[in-house]
């Protein structure tokens, strides 16, 4: 999708700048807040307070405290990337959650979208993430962090290899790297795609076969329980499924053809720890190329377009994004819509300014990641009408088709009739394309947000 405004021409007037929407926006936002509050569950209402206090798990956490622990009890600080794109950070993050080890989080930029603060570079001079400080010791490699967690927190949920599993576990970890290498060759190499593809599929099949070995039927790698091995595979299998569909038109990796992999995904997706850190296809396929220095298209076809939202980001939402990506069954539609409203409304002024970058100027120095531009400048004149559009998006998400919605719609249409339609559209498209999963919201909430923003562009 990215920047393409669906080729939609609206009733608005081209050129010029956007005037101020003639409506009392503060009262609209209070009304939205009230409606949302009335429809929320108790835990949804206390979400922001719970995040700050570390009582619930969220990508927004700066601290997460399990089992009533206090800030002073926290022994781990995890440095991970602000956009939640890094797979090595994801495996550590998921493991902390699964083991219920309390932790603090410090977010840093990745190279592809910014620079790192000197405090971080003093810990890790090469700039790589993740880094963890545990009991004052600095660990600079994801696997070292994971093994240290296992060793230093013996009272927490055990995820390490038991003695009898050591050999097979180590073999599986080697297989994980073998799969990673084969995937990298195929995804980023252009010399011999046929060979790369055959090699990747052969190793993928090996993983599927290995997953069929354990006698117990949990779906996890070691059979009887989720372990460090699953944590190490998860971020990469997740990215493989997304990138192979998008760049190579391969959509059979999570299907009956690889039944054990399919069952493994279902087992992983039963864990709140993994649900929290899981991303969506769209975010992955746009965040991988800048991290890897590019990915090679073999077949830019229907799946590519579907992942970019050509049909799935329209209302009514199609199941499984039209077959391209499995829906998240654990979040129902109503919950997803409330989540989307909460994320858009909580700090709507900042969201509007962010979106108005679409009508503003690219940042300097430029960054290589198309979804991120920390230095971008927003267009001041677009902020007010974009804020109004966000209000309209919230009403639509709340399922409100009443007078207030119509009044707001009319007021925005009046502004657009006076000019500035391109700035308005570009701002909404900018936001739509940059809703990050899991950083900003879950996939079901993101799909609603993206579709509602599109609908506003179409109908106004
Ligand atoms: N072997 C390292 C690899 C970590 C790694 O490659 N991290 C990448 C991100 S996925 C990185 O830090 N790149 C620098 C950056 O993007 O800032 C580990 O397991 O921790």
Automatic annotation (TrEMBL):
It holds the Pfam family GST_C_2. Signal peptide: none annotated. Residues 155-291 form the GST C-terminal domain. Coiled coil: none annotated. GO terms for cellular component: cytoplasm. It comes from the Eukaryota. Residues 76-157 form the GST N-terminal domain. InterPro entries: Glutathione-S-Trfase_C-like, Glutathione-S-Trfase_C_sf, Glutathione_S-Trfase, Glutathione_S-Trfase_N, GST_Omega/HSP26, Thioredoxin-like_sf. This is Glutathione S-transferase. It comes from Triparma laevis f. inornata. The lineage of its organism: Eukaryota, Sar, Stramenopiles, Ochrophyta, Bolidophyceae.
């Amino acid at each position: 999708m990215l920047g393409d405004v669906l080729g939609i021409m609206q009733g608005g007037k081209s050129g010029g700048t956007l005037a101020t929407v003639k409506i009392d926006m503060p009262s609209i936002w209070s009304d939205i807040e009230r409606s949302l509050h009335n429809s929320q569950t108790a835990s949804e209402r206390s979400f922001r307070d719970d995040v700050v206090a570390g009582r619930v798990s969220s990508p927004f956490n700066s601290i997460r405290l399990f089992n009533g622990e206090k800030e002073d009890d926290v022994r781990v600080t995890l440095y991970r990337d602000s956009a939640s794109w890094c797979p090595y950070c994801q495996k550590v993050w998921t493991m902390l959650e699964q083991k219920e080890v309390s932790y603090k989080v410090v977010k840093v930029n990745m190279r592809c979208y910014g620079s790192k603060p000197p405090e971080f570079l003093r810990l890790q001079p090469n700039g790589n993430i993740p880094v963890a400080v545990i009991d004052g010791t600095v660990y600079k490699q994801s696997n070292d962090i994971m093994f240290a967690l296992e060793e230093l927190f013996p009272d927490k949920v055990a995820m390490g290899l038991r003695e009898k599993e050591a050999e097979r576990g180590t073999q599986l970890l080697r297989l994980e790297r073998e799969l990673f290498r084969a995937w990298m060759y195929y995804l980023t190499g252009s010399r011999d795609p046929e060979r790369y593809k055959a090699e990747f599929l052969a190793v993928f099949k090996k993983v599927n076969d290995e997953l069929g070995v354990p006698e117990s039927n949990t779906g996890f790698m070691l059979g009887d329980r989720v372990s460090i091995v699953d944590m190490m595979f998860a971020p990469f299998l997740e990215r493989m499924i997304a990138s192979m569909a998008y760049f190579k038109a391969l959509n059979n990796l999570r299907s009956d053809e690889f039944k054990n992999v399919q069952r493994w995904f279902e087992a992983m997706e039963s864990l709140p720890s993994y649900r929290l850190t899981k991303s969506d296809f769209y975010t992955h396929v746009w965040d991988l190329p800048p991290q890897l220095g590019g990915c090679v298209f073999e077949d830019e076809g229907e799946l590519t377009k579907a992942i970019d939202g050509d049909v799935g980001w329209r209302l009514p939402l199609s199941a499984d994004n039209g077959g391209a990506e499995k829906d998240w069954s654990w979040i129902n539609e109503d919950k997803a819509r409330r989540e989307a409203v909460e994320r858009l409304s909580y700090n709507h002024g900042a969201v509007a300014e962010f979106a108005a970058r679409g009508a503003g100027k690219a940042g300097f120095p430029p960054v290589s990641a198309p979804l991120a531009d920390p230095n971008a400048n927003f267009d001041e004149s677009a902020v007010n009408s974009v804020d109004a559009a966000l209000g309209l998006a919230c009403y639509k998400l709340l399922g409100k088709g009443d007078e207030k919605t119509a009044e707001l719609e009319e007021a925005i249409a009046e502004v657009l009739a006076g000019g500035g339609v391109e700035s308005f559209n570009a701002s909404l498209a900018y936001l739509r394309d940059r809703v990050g999963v899991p950083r900003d919201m879950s996939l079901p909430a993101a799909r609603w947000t993206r579709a509602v923003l599109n609908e506003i562009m179409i109908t106004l």
